[in-house]
Amino acid sequence: MDERDKRLLNLIQEGFPLVTRPFEALGLPLDLTEAEVLGRVADLKRQEIIRQIGGIFDTQSLGYKSSLVAMRVPSARVDEAAAVVSDHPGVSHNYQRNHVFNLWFTVAVPSTCDLDWTVGRLHETAGAESTRILPTLRLFKIGVRLDMEGESGAGRVESAGGWYSEANRPKAGKAGLTPLSIAVCRELQEDLPLVAEPYAPMAQRIGIPERRLFEVAREMQSQGYLRRMAAVLQHHAAGYRANAMGVWVVHPERAEEAGRIMGSFKGVSHCYLRPTYPDWPYSIFTMVHGQKANDCQEIVDAISAATGITEYSLLYSTKQYKKIRLKYFTPDLDEWEARARRSLP
């Protein structure tokens, strides 16, 4: 990658234009033609650095129930248990981590399904010894942006305006989702084709003018359903070969203050307050990313110094079983629950 590739990757992680010719618009600040931007993006996809370009939606606002889940599985059966978990269409991320709770995954279900029942069924069929449901109680930050231009993840951004948090998260619009906004969601969640006018066929399939597609997308963004249009990168291919989940023991009275500070670090992509259990005392979770493990440790050391919190664990992912973008408004999730209930004795 040259410097313009790296700047292009930073730009399209921040936001992909909702305009007729988005690749032309991206080329303007880079002094590149539309054809040159398309060529560079195609090359970056062939190298598997860009995984997908599409809509990043707010799961909760769309009416889905979701949670991070920790499982303790006998070490000899981790791969087998992970296969059971990954088979669920609502599981978007599934990792083995270096902890007694060794299988970690995120799962989402529509409002018509029972999240607790789903996790309980996965616990039984995976043969887990213990399972802990860890939903988000407070969102301090979410925004996966891998800095390709070399800035340290241990640096801080003082203003929360540059990321998605509870403080600046738009509330879902009073009008709710309409059949048209659901149709737009189904289109925008797919990987954009690498053509000069990628939105035109989407509007055609829905049966609306392209300008109406943009209007609905921007309405969904202002209402909190759509976070942004953006590129999602393959971490390893992009040079970020280490990721760790820093989990912190934080007194409840300090949670708000600590969460804001932790979320301000550039190398933190996710920061949440989650419930604790007798065998899980950690309440704040920070996902950190680096080109090597030492980078992750550097970020966590900086967080500890800034907050004064020293009781934490750093859980590295040792194996990735599944990592996909969750698809909304498809029949797969209801079908999985129906099959699972039919299989009960």
| CATH architecture classification name of the domain at 65-160 and 236-323 | 2-Layer Sandwich
Q: Mean pLDDT score, rounded?
A: 90
CATH topology call of the domain at 65-160 and 236-323: Alpha-Beta Plaits
How would you describe the oligomerization state of the chains in this entry? single chain
Radius of gyration in whole Å, from Cα? 20 Å
H/E topology pattern:
HHHEEHEEHEEHHHEEHEEHEH
Number of strands: 11
| C-alpha termini separation | 56 Å
CATH class of the domain at 65-160 and 236-323: Alpha Beta
Principal-axes shape call: globular
Q: Approximately how much beta-strand content do the residues carry?
A: 15-25%
The number of distinct helices, counting runs of at least 4 residues, comes to 11
Explain this structure:
The chain has 345 residues and is of the alpha+beta class. Among the domains are: 1-47; 65-160 and 236-323, Alpha-Beta Plaits, CATH 3.30.70.3460. It has helices at residues 3-14, 22-27, 34-46, 78-86, 115-126, 179-188, 200-206, 210-223, 255-263, 293-307, 332-342; strands spanning 50-57, 65-72, 91-97, 103-109, 130-134, 138-142, 226-233, 242-248, 268-273, 284-290, 312-323. The strands form two sheets. A nine-stranded antiparallel β-sheet has the order 5-2-4-3-11-8-10-9-6. It has a two-stranded antiparallel sheet with strand order 1-7. A hairpin with a 5-residue loop joins strand 3 and strand 4 (103-109). The chain is globular, with a radius of gyration of 20 Å. The termini are far apart. 35% of the residues are buried.
